[in-house]
Amino acid sequence: MSDSTVADLQTSLAGGPELPQERRLVTAVPGPRSTELFARRGTAVARGVGTTLPVFVDRAGGGVIVDVDGNSLIDLGAGIAVVSVGNAADAVVARVREQVARFTHTCFMVTPYDGYVQVCEALNRLTPGDHDKRSALFNSGAEAVENAVKIARAHTGRQAVVVFDHAYHGRTNLTMAMTAKNMPYKHSFGPFAPEVYRVPMSYPFRDGPGVDGATAARRAIELIEAQVGAANVACVLVEPIQGEGGFVVPAPGFLPAVAAWSRDVGAVFVADEIQTGFCRTGDWFACDHEGVVPDLVTTAKGIAGGLPLAAVTGRAEIMDAPHVGGLGGTYGGNPVACAAALGAIETMQSQDLSAAARRLGAVMSARLTDMARRHEAIGDVRGRGAMVAVELVRPGTKEPDAAATAAVAKACHAEGVVVLTCGTYGNVLRLLPPLVMPEPLLEEGLTVLDTALAVTAS
Ligand code: PLZ
């Protein structure tokens, strides 16, 4: 191909923020080309890998996904809280292009490179607390969680890992043990890793008003002390706002109390900020909201604008507990993923995406609260920043309504709005727009959701 042909191709194929920010349906969703590709998928891809919405993607950017039939969908999922800076964001594309042309891989453990160090420096600076920190990079959220446990065990010489009801930490063997929900994550895949103990989470909607943050923390701590023994706890690991478990925002005071207890008994307090991190909740990290300073933080998803990268960051003396060579992996901190992360972090800073998350969050919360007044199926509206959800129940009760939730999501999909569900009981509709989503587009997506609720869940 000549240079000019390549240049033409790049322009005509470009996704990213230049894509028209509009909902445009030119076929049914899914359209004929997606349907054809989906049939091929069935004969090539293992059925265990699920699909939320069977449209095949052609390009994406800003707040839209354009499918192979030419439909432009409003993206309220961001690839499960990943493309917070938008798909194919300019700074990510530029840095990745440059890096991929320089070198693609050497393995940081064999011959290191600067991008890895720069990402660690950024993480050490941006995560909560101004103490001396170190970071290590991995490929996926689950891998980061596994490594946080390894580091906590090496540091404390203890084994027990404490996690919470409704938690989600991944699909590897150890993280399956740490994840609460059986279907689809754990069913038929045991036996699971030992020394993982689960205690109750603070879940205001289901706990009711009698259980404030301090009470919920005491409830969890008493169980740990009675059933595990404080002296055996290597780490207490918690999502500051639970993601897959249903966007459960703990009552104020819960996280600070659990963190303080962990410190008192010499256990490592780990915040899993894989879904909440990097501006999603309107701060760099969800822990910032209550001034909680975790010993270790796990990050992934939003960190690198869509490239696979994850990290553990924390107190230098804890992070440095494992022996030299004890942490690593072939691809962890791959140079292309690091370049993407530097581009994503630069975008979050230059466009102040924490403020954008708060703005989008205010729009979503106001609209959803209004919908809750009109749709009896909405039992709760909750979240923080641009991480907002509604929990659907049978009217007048707190009985979860997974069927209505699935029906509302499906109706949104058919109208060209990508929404995701979550929750231990499958009855939570969650909204996670890219933080660069134009407000009118978000408003339009919410109007589609409002109509879907009226038609399917009333
Ligand atoms: N910790 C808090 O949200 C990933 C899971 C999607 P990985 N959540 C999306 C699915 O169905 O597999 C997640 C998370 C929290 C850990 C993880 C795991 O991150 O990058 O998917 O391994």
What is the SS-derived class? alpha/beta
Separation of the first and last Cα atoms: 57 Å
Q: In percent, how helical is the residue content?
A: 25-40%
Q: Given the structure, what is the number of helices?
A: 15
What is the overall shape?
A: globular
Helices and strands, in order, run as HHEEEHHHEHEHEHHEHEEEHHHEEHEEEH
Please give the number of β-strands.
Answer: 15
Radius of gyration: 22 Å
Average pLDDT taken over every residue: 97
Oligomer: single chain
Range of strand content? 15-25%
Major β-sheet, in short? 7 strands, mixed
Uncertain stretches = none
Give an overview of the whole structure.
The chain is an alpha/beta fold. The chain has helices at 3-13, 32-44, 78-81, 90-102, 114-126, 141-156, 173-178, 204-207, 213-227, 254-264, 316-319, 335-350, 353-374, 402-414, 439-456; strands at 57-61, 64-67, 72-75, 133-138, 160-164, 196-199, 233-238, 268-272, 296-299, 310-315, 378-384, 387-392, 417-418, 420-422, 428-431. The strands form three sheets. A seven-stranded mixed sheet has the order 4-10-9-8-7-5-6, with helices on both faces. Strand 11 and strand 12 form a beta hairpin. The radius of gyration is 22 Å and the shape is globular. The chain starts with a helix and ends with a helix. Bound molecules: ligand PLZ. Residues 80, 140-142, 145, 168-171, 239, 243-244, 272, 274-275, 300 line the site of ligand PLZ.
